[in-house]
Design brief:
CATH topology of the largest domain: Cytochrome Bc1 Complex, Chain D, domain 2
Number of helices: 14
Number of domains: 3
Distance between the termini: 80 Å
Radius of gyration: 43 Å
Shape: elongated
Order of helices and strands: HHHHHHHHHHHHHH
CATH architecture of the largest domain: Orthogonal Bundle
Structural class: mainly alpha
């Protein structure tokens, strides 16, 4: 049984016994001590005057009758013993409370209530994170958490990244607190914000409530805890949870098809119009960004690209992929995913073809 429950129950029972004991002492003392009934009125006069005596100025006073039994000294001795016994019980109660508080502040070890509570909370977080994964993450990251290392029922790799890997495990990182915190923060941020990928690849949606998703911060932390601290048995439970979900006939869920690959014009509208204008006569959002409406016939514009065009047939692809490499200090970002951007080569080439077609 949990030591918290044992100590709390013992403290409560001792406190109730203490109250009952002092109540008994008060009641018993009242029973063994005789009542002192004061003599008043005629009774008082008869104690001091005979029949026919003249009562000039009586002086009333109390006369305590001598008790029959028990002896007053015996009563006093019993009361002392009861007071001592009550004091022992009271100090025992204080000792239990002090012991409970002492076990609370012990940082670790088998007797640490704090460590026991942390372990229980960790177990609860893993269980809740496991259920969240089975409900929301399963279709893309797989029943074993291996993501694109698993195949769907059609034999195609799943779109999600592998999560059940050594690089995410607490046991792998616990000896390096800095690496452990970095990985926790990375997983938490990725779950909260999601990760946009160019079509036709899947994009991971933002799950955090701060980004418009359905999960509050506690649920995000529960998912992170499950990914980093879940055992192989916890991962094996995912299929069982899926099987018993309402409306799920089996655990083999195929993710929906990814969106269609955008055309060059569509990709340019999504990624280029943040800075550039494609409408003739309309200035770009960023003053230094050229209008691309006639880029196919008027480009290149800057000197670096004019020089590159003379010797490089693929100059425009290189410019769109990694403009800072061609012209250091330019504000145009890197777009090619191999260089740290967010677009694959096929999408960039479709944008280049579209730009070269503009007249």
């Amino acid at each position: 049984m949990d030591i918290n429950i044992i100590l709390a129950t013992a403290s409560l029972l001792l406190f109730v016994a203490l109250l009952a004991y002092f109540g008994f002492v008060a009641y018993h003392q009242q029973q063994i001590e005789p009542d002192e009934k004061p003599a008043t009125g005629v009774e008082l006069l008869r104690q001091h005057y005979g029949p026919g005596d003249t009562v000039e100025q009586p002086t009333p006073y109390w006369v305590a009758p001598i008790p029959a039994a028990p002896d007053p000294l015996e009563i006093s001795g019993n009361l002392d013993r009861k007071i001592v016994a009550g004091g022992v019980m009271l100090f025992a109660l204080f000792g239990l409370v002090g012991g409970y508080l002492l076990l609370e502040i012990i940082p670790s070890g088998p007797l640490s209530l704090r460590a026991a509570a942390a372990d229980k909370q960790m177990e609860t977080s893993i269980q809740r994170g496991k259920n969240l994964f089975a409900n929301f993450c399963y279709p893309c990251h797989g029943k074993l958490g291996l993501g694109n290392g698993e195949n769907d029922v059609n034999g195609k790799p799943l779109p999600g990244k592998p999560l059940n890997v050594a690089a995410n495990k607490y046991d792998t990182l616990k000896e390096d607190p800095s690496a452990l915190k970095t990985r926790e923060d990375f997983l938490r941020l990725t779950i909260t914000r999601g990760k946009a990928n160019p079509a036709p690849s899947y994009s991971m949606p933002a799950w955090g409530a701060s980004e418009g998703g359905p999960f509050n911060p506690e649920q995000v932390d529960q998912l992170v805890t499950f990914v980093m601290r879940g055992t192989e048995q916890d991962w094996a439970d995912i299929v069982n949870i899926r099987t018993h979900l309402d409306g799920v006939d089996n655990a083999d869920v195929v993710p929906p098809p990814p969106p269609l690959k955008p055309t060059g014009a569509e990709a340019a509208q999504v990624y280029c119009t943040t800075c550039h204008s494609f409408d003739a006569g309309k200035p770009s959002t960023v003053p230094t960004a050229p209008n691309l409406g006639h880029y196919g016939t008027e480009g290149p514009i800057n000197d670096q690209n004019k020089a590159a065009k003379a010797s490089d047939a693929d100059w425009l692809f290189h410019w769109v992929s990694d403009a800072p490499k061609v012209k250091p200090g330019i504000i145009m970002p890197v777009w090619l995913d191999k260089d740290g951007g967010s677009l694959d080569e096929a999408t960039i080439r479709s944008i280049v073809e579209y730009l070269q077609s503009l007249k």
